[in-house]
Amino acid sequence: MKFGILKEYDDQRVAIVPEIVPKLKQLGLEILVETQAGATALFSDKLYQEHASVVSRQEVLSQSDMLISIHPLSDADLQQVRKGVLLISQFAPFASPGVAETLHGKGFQAFSLDMIPRTTLAQSMDVLSSMAGIAGYKAVLEAARLLPRYFPMMITAAGTIRPAKVLILGAGVAGLQAIATARRLGAQVEAFDTRRAAKEEVESLGAKFVEVEGAVEDTAAGGYAVAQSDEFLARQRAEVQARAAKADVIITTAQVRGTKAPILLPKETVSHMKPGSVVVDLAASTGGNCELTQDNAVIQAHQVTIIGNSYLANLMPQDASVMYANNVLNFIKTFVKEGKLNLDMNNEIIRGAMITPIPETQNA
Question: Coil, strand, or helix at residue 240?
Answer without folding.
Answer: helix
